Amino acid sequence: MRNFELEVFFSQWEFKAKYHMTASDVESMSLKELLNLASDQERHDFENLWLGYTETWGAPDLRNTIAETYDTLSAENILCFAGAEEGIYAAMRVLLDKNDHAIVVVPNYQAAETLPLEICEVTGVALQPEKNWRLDLECLAEAIRPNTKLISINVPNNPTGATMSSSDLNELISLCRKNNIYLFSDEVYRLLELDEAKRMPQIADIYEKGISLNVVSKAYGFPGLRIGWIATQDKALLLRLERFKHYLSICNSAPSERLALIVLNNRERILARNRSLLRENLSELEKFFADYPSLFEWAAPDGGCIAYPKYIGRGTVESFCHKLVNEYGVLLLPASIYQSELLDAPIDRFRIGFGRSKIKEGLSQFRRFLADNHGEF
What we know:
Layout: H1 5-13, E1 19-20, H2 31-35, H3 40-47, H4 60-67, E2 78-81, H5 83-95, E3 101-106, H6 110-117, E4 121-128, E5 134-135, H7 137-143, E6 148-154, H8 166-179, E7 182-186, H9 203-206, E8 210-215, E9 228-232, H10 235-245, H11 254-265, H12 267-290, E10 296-297, E11 306-307, E12 310-311, H13 317-328, E13 330-331, E14 333-334, E15 350-353, H14 359-372
Parallel strand pairs: 1-13, 3-4, 3-6, 6-7, 7-8
Antiparallel strand pairs: 2-9, 4-5, 8-9, 10-12, 11-15, 14-15
Organism: Aliikangiella coralliicola
Protein name: Aminotransferase class I/II-fold pyridoxal phosphate-dependent enzyme
Pfam family, one: Aminotran_1_2
């Protein structure tokens, strides 16, 4: 199994760097803050929870509430996982075998590429930076083979924040339907679009072989709960995934399920708070990058809480990011973390996050680094 380079990098720096400026989630709450949002019944249920095994599928009331976030689905269309990563792993292992072919959008979250590559032949299709990271649908259509089983997308995209237009989405679904292909859609940043008009419908709602992945970690801001899910109209596939989960986590954490239910029952309030924070932080990033036009090319993402600016200064983005974290404690993700085995990806980018609080402190230290190293970069 290949190293998960992002997690290897984070295992070294995430809790060591003083200024975590590349976080992929929105600022979380304390347990006390979340419980303050709970109803009396929800608080009672949490405090009196029996700490035994839970249902492999997920608690019935949690699945019902998750289903309410979709337009056409019920609890029978939902299977819970221990975070989104377990869902990705299970889906790739269940859907693909050595005789299949998969297509993966690049750049992407590494697991979307690495896991299929362990199983079958995989083709990468690029997002086009010169076209605001639009998916090259012509290239994708040409990549389809008779044995293509799965196309994997991530919208809003990690790391670019790109979304898809309605026309591109409809064309993609038409290609999948015509060729009887599953469409795996990582939707963990959905609901954080800067322009609500760019919000895509959830694939599980609109395509019979669509698989929607989501989690309370990213848009909601509760990664410590480790509650994710897959939604699909294909109940036979869900049953196979449930059987596979028996070999992984078996079931989810009972306290986490109760807390995730409180999150989702208060989703509008939580999302409003998160979007407000993103708007404030994005404004700070806009001002920062406007001050350094000779070092960076900046464009705001369509959605999510991360962006992927271009480094145009001297030297490499790798040396820039490593000096920044080693000497000044400011953590960014250099482009090497998003390099693909399938095709060439940009090498002059870095991921910066704007979902956490205290962004001003991190940017102040970033400015100090640039002032102290003026002329080097």
